[in-house]
């Protein structure tokens, strides 16, 4: 019974991502630019994430 509840909560549409909303695009950008993490890369990936979120909305 508990397992079914966990599966239902994990697969439901109201799941709250603890890392933030739609963190996927930011992580995708970091992966595509595999290098040393810099403030410039952070800003680039944040901008990329914002653009992708607007496209998917």
TrEMBL record:
This is Uncharacterized protein.
